[in-house]
Protein 1
Amino acid sequence: MKVSCSVNGQVLVADDVWEGESLLYVLRERFGLYGSKNACEQGECGSCSVYLDGVLVCACLVLGGQVNGREILTVEGLSHRTALHPVQTAFVEAGAVQCGFCTPGLVVAAHDLLRRVPDPTEAQIREALAGNICRCTGYAKIIDAVQLAAGRMSG
Amino acid sequence: MIHFLQPASWSEALAMKAAHPEAMPIAGGTDVMVEINLDLHRPAGIIDLTRVPELTEWGTDDGLLRIGAGVTYSRIINELGDRLPGLAMASRTVGSPQIRNRGTVGGNLGTASPAGDAHPPLLASDALVELASNSGTRRVPAREFFIAPKRSARRDDELIAAFLIEPAAGPQQFSKVGTRNAMVIAVCSFALAIDATRKRVATGIGSAGPTPIRATDAESFIEGVLDEGRLWERPAEVPTSAVTRFGELVAAAARPIDDVRGTAAYRRHALAVLARRCFTWAWVDYRRMGAA
Amino acid sequence: MKPRLAPAATVTGRVGENVPRPDGVLKVQGGFPYSSDLQVDRMLWGATVRSPHPYARILSIDTSEALAAPGVRAVLTHEDVPGKRVYGLEIPDQPVLAFDVVRYWGEAVALVAADHPELARRAAQKVHVQYQVLAPLTDPEQALLADAPRLHPDGNVTRHVKIRHGNQDARAEVVVTGEYEVGMQDQAPLGPESGLAVPDEEGGVDLFIATQWLHVDREQLAGVLGLPPDRVRLTMAGIGGAFGAREDLSMQAHACMLALRSGRPVKISYSRPESFVGHVHRHPGRLRYEHGANRDGKLVYVRARIVLDGGAYASSSTAVIANASCFAVGPYRCPNATIDGWVVYTNNPPCGAMRGFGSVQNCYAHEAQMDKLAEALGMDPVELRTRNALETGSQMITGQVIDGPVPVAELLRRIKERPLPAASDPGSLDLTTQPGGVSNTTHGESVRRGVGYAVGFKNVGYSEGFNDYSTARVKLSVVGGRPRVEVHTAAAEVGQGLVTVQAQIAGTELGVTDVVVLNADTRVGSSGSSSASRQTYITGGAVKAACDAVRRRVLALAELELGRKTGKTDGLRLERDSVVSADGREIVSLTTLLGDEVIEETHEFRPRQTTRLDPETGQANAHVQYAFAAHRAVVDVDTELGLVKVVELATAQDVGKAINPQAVEGQLEGGAAQGLGLAVMEEIQLKDGVIRNASFTDYLLPTILDMPPLRMDVLELGDPHSPYGLKGVGEPPTISSGPAIVAAIRAATGRPITRVPVRPHDIVET
């Protein structure tokens, strides 16, 4: 089947999609957007977090065919060429990135949090990011990064 | 090859389900996609219900809230949290923000897992499940909906349209034991609803039996205690011994097994504790309401 | 035909600075190519047929239906292995594809390559394997019995380490005994096992792969593929975490075989459930201890029997049991020790390396014993530990005398003196602060606080005479009018920040602003593995040595130039992209001095030599360096439900010298989180050899709501033997964090708790 949707502001089309392909597979293997990661493919790690029509979701749990005509924003769409989003800059500076496999998902989830709650408490950060597993950092520097980004974005 | 169907309206969805009773409905995909991604199941067909506008709506129907099967947990928390506190508390424990943004109570009912987080509060609130097919619509009480693990009263040609539930008529509680502080499937869970109008206490037990279960003996016992002590009218503390007995009766209603998430003995033990605590918290709220 | 790999980024920074990692910008944009992200034209997808039985004889394999399936380009079995049919890090005992028998659930039996992953999966189901199912041997104690079925020709004992130190008949005034059990932990790196094999025109292959050790992969692959090593070229792709899981081969040989057979590039990327059978795990252990001490709290003897379940194949079991035995008593002076460490074959999933490598299991036991002993003596547990703490010049139970800083007592003092966190607020409406979190299980009912302490240690670098070395090539040239250093090693950047550290060392040694670390591959000599907390020491040492050689040549050049002009060449240094005089004045810029000249040096670096444990007494100078950390845990336990909230962790660790302080903190935090995981939730659950929770739904990893703040004291005491005085950092945080949490749970509940992970029903005893 054919899947056509807007990804990061551009209409993309994939032909000959197998009906069982997830949005994650379509993004990665059909559109070459490998930023959304394939760590668990069961919604338990958040590494494939993207926006679907403005709502934060796991791309692995969306069926490819479900996104026809929909709008998707991935981690690749948060920065413009070399200009990083403040959340992205903060992750680099705070040392919130180690292996980085969870990072794209966390960046998107943190972006979503700060869009809704510009000045979150630590408890709010923790509850908002509870769906994103990081195996390297122990999360401390991720919390630092979100607070750093929040400060800069509101300042 | 999987046959992919994408109805644009409710009537089209019902027609497709009638023509392809074997097709698996998908909404948020939080159950269906796991099975596909991990190669656990290859449905012959899939019906995508995310383009049926009727399913994402909620409103009132003869004093009940009628909530479309496609309303997500996030929306239940945000839009209905004040009217359905028990269900909202349960929704808050579902998966992660990403899952709550996508997952639906309708999907929970469709999977009919004994561990579904929404089920205990639906039992406690005596909700109705609205099932529809080309041959008509019927409303099945949640208390009769669950038949066996992952089996429900829904026929193959039916889709879940909505569930109907009374706005809370008193304090509600929900507790769930998991071995992690977030994103965890219930080891066991418990819901309690106090109906101040009808003077009833109702329960729901999750993840401790082949289906979600109601603890009817516990309900009648504690109602008896409240009636006898005329505690509904002049809310005072309920004797500790009665609350303990209530917990024991809830535990006795469970039919747990040993599995990868916990032992049967622990589940029974924990349910007694959850039931005691939930009742105590709810009763404190009830007394506070009375005082107000 | 090559997939897109990450371009090398320029790094500027010195040793001791918080230099941001060069791959960070790409990683936050989703543009960093990991091994599962690789794609080239005409690429096929590989799938693996795995055994549904933990132990069975293979009667027949029929691939005909799979070969005829749509889109299928190759189907392979053990008969198609071109070279050696077995491989292994220490003992070549593991079949590339099973022949005759399968020894664990999920063992690879056959391979399929097809045009689409779904076609490969469907075809894999059409490979028909007939098995004669055998009764699996899954209890390691049973495996030790003389009449147990032999899973391998030499029997079931992979290694027995004996340590006989001091008086074997020592007696003591106070004796405590205990038995402890540690469950099977998974490394669970988020990046799945994956890679892309591309055949060349001449029968060789390029493999783009995420691994902890390119050269040992290549050595094993060359054997399996029957190719000379230079026909098997490995290039590092982005690594999504490792923690020991990428030391052994997983899909490497399979992808290469499918590529060579089909003549097409082949990608294999495991699903999460497959990953659970695709790599080795941390050894589960049963540990029986007896501690004897004087009334004043001085240890007299320790006797221990440690049995680790190695599973179906050896992997690095022989080295893991050596560590478990060498460090069995913990970082304490103990004049008399009798240690028997066994690691055995069973039909459970194979076990091998994981962060902490043998020191994690025994730390649970020796620290529980120290608490027990303190209680028997009526002594403060930290005081007891301090009284027995190893010091500089102390002798280990292996007879080795520890030199350099040994700040065990100081680490304990630091965590003990740190103020405790405030008591939890029972009236708090923020459920995330309560055990059970937003699941709303307690509003303070039955919540008790506990505080626990633990200290641990382990070796840095390879042990027992293993040839430990790393190779670095450093090139200095002028690019675009600026001096630039290129560092090239084969060392794996697994997330720890090694790429930054290499650049910082080169930037410091050569005084150059622009440093680029090239992607790791096999065009340069081996760096050894990214394991044993060794890379900053060993590969850092190699980079430093190569820089020293480059610097000597640059200064020689400068002296030649300047000597002709001024005759003054004493004390010249490299700084600020220039040659500077002893008093820091710029003499000549490197750009001017070098012109078109390229100065390149390749150097190997070796730490001091170690020796093998004596087979009868276990005495040896077996280890290069020792690293120490201590943890304090504060927990709130719902004693009625058995749910635990870790409120705070505090740690003190000597890192010798923090090359990159921010990255050091990241190691301490991340390592502690993995320790927390094993303490309270992470366990691969087995029933008759079958994994019952091979998914992230039921194998639980700590979330951001589970990991508390970590208060850190980072000590930089300087080891006289290592570059910059540094010590390996990565593993100690994973060793004592969990035991401290369990000690805190014991303190909160009064229950003995002898098994990890601690389950709710262990606390409430139903």
Note: Residues 286 and 292 of chain B are 10 Å apart (CA to CA).
Protein 2
Amino acid sequence: MERNLMKGNEALAEAALRAGCKCFFGYPITPQTEISAYLAKNMAKAGGVFLQAESEVAAINMVLGAASTGVRAMTSSSSPGVSLKSEGVSYIAGSDLPCVIINVQRGGPGLGGIQPSQADYWQATKALGHGDYQLLVYAPSSVQEMVDKVTLAFDMADAYRMPVMILADGLLGQMMEPVTFPEKKTDFIEKPWATDGHGGKRKHNITNSLYLKPEELEKSVVERFKRYDEIKAKHTEAELYLTEDADIIVTAYGATARVAKSAVNLARAEGIKAGLFRPITLWPFPVNEINEAVKNAKVILDVEMSMGQMIEDVKLATNCSKPVEFYGRTGGVIPTPAEVLEQIKKLGGAK
Amino acid sequence: MAVVFERPKALVDIPTHYCPGCTHGIIHRLVAEVIDEMGIEGDTIGVCPVGCSVMAYDYFGCDMIEAAHGRAPATATGVKRAMPDKFVFTYQGDGDLAAIGTAETVHAATRGENIVVIFVNNTIYGMTGGQMAPTTLPGQVTQTTPFGRDTNVQGYPVRMCEMLSTLDGVALAQRVTVNSVPHIREAKKAIRKAFENQKNGLGFSIVEILSTCPTNWGMTPVDALKRVEDEMIPYYPLGVYKDKTAEEVNK
Amino acid sequence: MAKITVDFERCKGCALCTTACPKKIVAMNQEKRNRKGYYPAYCTDESSCIGCAMCAMMCPDCAITVEK
């Protein structure tokens, strides 16, 4: 298969095209703009729609409209823009529509900065918008994995009728790596629920998130959470690296996991038994996998580009069975392998 | 004897939740009649707003989408771009279209989005119990302007058709009302023209319909019709503010 | 020969139809209420109905069918 050297953001965009994404709606924001630029150039050629919306709010509601007709639709943004999309994402979830949302995270809060960050973990996994719902969240850590997860994200969104997020960051978006793309997808699942014109052949379909009777709303939410349970049971993903004999497990995701892996390798070179646990699905959090990873460990070191958000899930998932320490840089500062190694050593990762 | 007037097929045969005398029902029927006459129910997708007409999805026989507050033009854009051969209309109130959704309205219009917008202006937020709308008239008493809308404090009402008529993407901007049979006939013609424009790919067509809210105006339905005539039409003059088809003829 | 049929249960008693009738033969029932508690409209003089359908056009609830 053909291998290309490609920038992360452009790879995300090409992967969406290969996945059969028919409509992309977005609004410019650094550091994800290459996704829009790439699709502006290539979407029409692929028979799809690229439209620059007047706002993030409009863009996500355009996604809602396109997705409700049954076509594959996507939007992308970076942290402040994703906040604006939260309303629409909640409606998409409440209307049981599939779509893919990419967040190439930057520093916050507020306008924050434009350098890489992981401070939207809580937003992505707990509270992107109001109401009882979840996003399926993938956190790739290489350009190839971003391609693979975009492909998977569209399939999962269709299968479970829910919004799926690719939680990347400015580092992954801007870096260049060799990638291989899948063939363009041509077979899609049937969507009998689509509001695409009934053609006189069926009763009218309604795309809706409003239920005025509490029992009916409860029923719709409970049904949705049954789908979530199935995802939790079948579709969590994580990478376990040198965890079997490790005394100290570093937990990190996305770009930070690359740094953490280097630190683990440095530690091993010094004879320290360190390992890495990297969740690939952030929601659902890979509970079984982390418990497997830490079973022989004495201590866990959680490393993030934030003040510590995923650490709460690490503690919850392991039921605080091991001490969990934290090292983080924030505001767009990227931790170095040397810094992480120093933390590993501090935690008694002695030989 | 033959039936000369009955419920249009594109309007589902169930009672609506609208208050007695609310003219939403008339406007629903006119849209459904146009859909029937053009034979396009199976190819039409409607987008309803947040507000009194939030449950319009139950009433129209075509496929329907319930949008977020003010976002119907964006949602309709997504539908139309995905399915350019289908007919797409939004049905929005004044709070939805002219306050929280102004940006979506203006940008769908200026893009020349090939959709129909049915804009129901009754100068009040009905569903939430009668608060000031962007279209509330100066002096009008509402729950949030209990002493009347004071233009020094709350500013002035928005005239959407006039505003939108300046945009090149707009094919039709027309204001009508449904407070009498002659006005209803005119309103239907405007709605038909809007849908024909979409068929002909002319761009964004908005039909603003001055409507009543007897409940929140504190009036009988019959008095409410009179208020449209006496107070609303003078502030919101009926008429065609932009019509690309007429411009073509005049060229 | 023309006639209107008011759907007794569908009518909300708003009386808009009474403003539209050119013959002034549509009125509101003063005695009989429907299940929702509204006093529905009725034709006071069927022989005078011209089947113009103006009452039906004015009805927000599609409660009037007109035959001619």
Note: Residues 24-124+133-243 of chain B form a domain with the Rossmann fold fold (CATH 3.40.50.970).
